[in-house]
Amino acid sequence: MAGDLATPRSRDLRPILSFVFVLILWDLAHRFALVDPRFLPAPLDILTRLISELSAGTILSDLAATLRRNLLGFLIGAAAGVSLGAVLGASRRIGQIVGPTVVAQRQTALFAWVPLLAMWFGGGDSGKIAFIALAAFQPTVINTWRGIALVPEPLRELAASLRFSQGQYLRHVALPAAAPQIFTGLHTALIYAWLATVGSELFMNITPGLGGRLSEGSQMFEMDLLFLAIAIFGAVGLIYNSLAEALEAQLLKGHRP
Amino acid sequence: MTLIHSSPAPVPFAPRTARALVQSLAPLGALSGQILLGLSFPLALLALWSLGAARGWVPPQILPAPSVVWQSFLDLCADGSLALHTNASLIRVAEGFALGATVGLVFGAAVGLVPALRAWVWPPVQAATRVNVLAWMPLLTLFLGIDEALKVVVIGWSVSIPVILATARAVGDVPATLRELGAVLNLTRAQRLRLIVLPQALPQIATGLREGLANAWQSLVIVELFASFEGLGYLMTWGRQLFQLDLVLVAMAVIAVLGFSLDLSLRAVERWLQPWQTGAGHGR
């Protein structure tokens, strides 16, 4: 559905041309001084800033610091989420006891955890990573739980008649059967973790990183830096999304008959 | 809640008491037993928390006793400050939601109905919306300051995105058979919109609005943490600065409960819209 909205047909060049037009209009507005350059930098200014940042190496080291936090938090949160989700899914009783709390906790606004985690773990790296891990944990645990709880009955019966232990059942039956849903959870977790990474850098202590550059651009009124940081934030999100989609397609290729 | 009603799995870990409890409650229906089971875990956590606080397992700076949190909840209620902050937050959500829903419905309908807009204007706008409003916030501050305008625009922005997507999709995706029907009956454009496009688009738009409201609640917290002098997010920031964890916990609880009730009530509205949708779909 909505093929036009989500993915334009490949022969249709209008979406690409529309970006070109926006850039041209943006540039013309500058050349004819229609906009205040203090508020909207020219497209070329942003490119110049990118080149100077790249040659100084600053933006890359900021991005590296941000990505390190992001990946560390994601790994911790995803590992915890898959483990707890597997337990909730494998034992119906534990699912009934702990599950509603997990669901209710998901309803809490994610960023409401920032002040608490900052007090528990400090506003430095550990606080940030804890928050990123929480962001990755929530979608992972719910999707893993759902995936494993809904393993088809025949597979369960097969495992029971083969006298699989709980561990064997999880490893050989439940986890492979639930893989598509677990990947969906991990995909969402990747996106949330990225959002939480930049959020934590904006709301906790200022440390080297992309969020720090965002605040710097805003406070110093350096619009070229600000736009550059926003563009990098968007680009990383886009790359994560496409990587996750490609990986999902690859891993699930042989999965469904 | 298909999860809970899924086919029975082996339950080797079930505590005997829990099972006995469920069986004794069988006449009341399985549902209340499940609610009790679901409540048992947070209640156990609460008991552990009280015990830990009483025995001094964790310093109160790290986790104040539940009684302390409850007391500060009562204090905040008594001096009216909790009502003040909650009110400020709710007004922001309402204003931001109104702004975002209006912009989203109008722009979404335009994108859905006008192919030229969809081809030329939508792609750059979509690219901008793909970047979370969180990253735009430092930029928006420069244009809007850090007062109410920033908050309402940030919330409205996050609301408008799912509304635009849902509306554009719903309005643009009229099934070919229905479109042909409109052509056969020689309906005017206005009639076609009112009789064919709108009825089949409404449920999808309602879902978009619900997602928008969920977003509004999330971004309220984001923008209030970013810059504010009142509101539930501010209450948390303030508690953190004073090292008063009880304030932080009270604010978190209020945010959680309000967000949860908002979602529940919107789900109820959506369910109320569903029968109408199936009726319309089959009737024509």
Automatic annotation (TrEMBL), chain A:
Protein topology in the membrane: Multi-pass membrane protein
Main localization (coarse): membrane
Keywords from the UniProt entry: Cell membrane, Membrane, Transmembrane, Transmembrane helix, Transport
Domain ABC transmembrane type-1 per the UniProt entry, residue ranges: 63-244
Compartments (UniProt record): Cell membrane
Listed GO CC annotations: plasma membrane
Gene Ontology BP annotations: transmembrane transport
Keyword rRNA processing: no
Transmembrane segments: 16-34, 71-91, 103-123, 225-243
PANTHER family for the chain: ALIPHATIC SULFONATES TRANSPORT PERMEASE PROTEIN SSUC-RELATED (PTHR30151:SF38), ALKANE SULFONATE ABC TRANSPORTER-RELATED, MEMBRANE SUBUNIT (PTHR30151)
Family of this protein: Belongs to the binding-protein-dependent transport system permease family.
Protein name from the UniProt record: Sulfonate transport system permease protein
TrEMBL record, chain B:
Origin: domain of life: Bacteria
PANTHER family attached to this UniProt entry: ALKANE SULFONATE ABC TRANSPORTER-RELATED, MEMBRANE SUBUNIT, TAURINE TRANSPORT SYSTEM PERMEASE PROTEIN TAUC
Cellular localisation: Cell membrane
GO biological process: cellular response to sulfur starvation; transmembrane transport
Descriptive protein name: Sulfonate transport system permease protein
SMART domains per record: Romo1
InterPro entries documented for this protein: MetI-like, MetI-like_sf, Romo1/Mgr2
Record Pfam families: BPD_transp_1
Keywords: Cell membrane, Membrane, Transmembrane, Transmembrane helix, Transport
Residue stretches making up the ABC transmembrane type-1 domain: 86-266
Membrane topology: Multi-pass membrane protein
Transmembrane segments: 31-51, 97-121, 127-145, 152-171, 247-266
Any single GO CC term annotated in Swiss-Prot or TrEMBL for this entry: plasma membrane
Family: Belongs to the binding-protein-dependent transport system permease family.
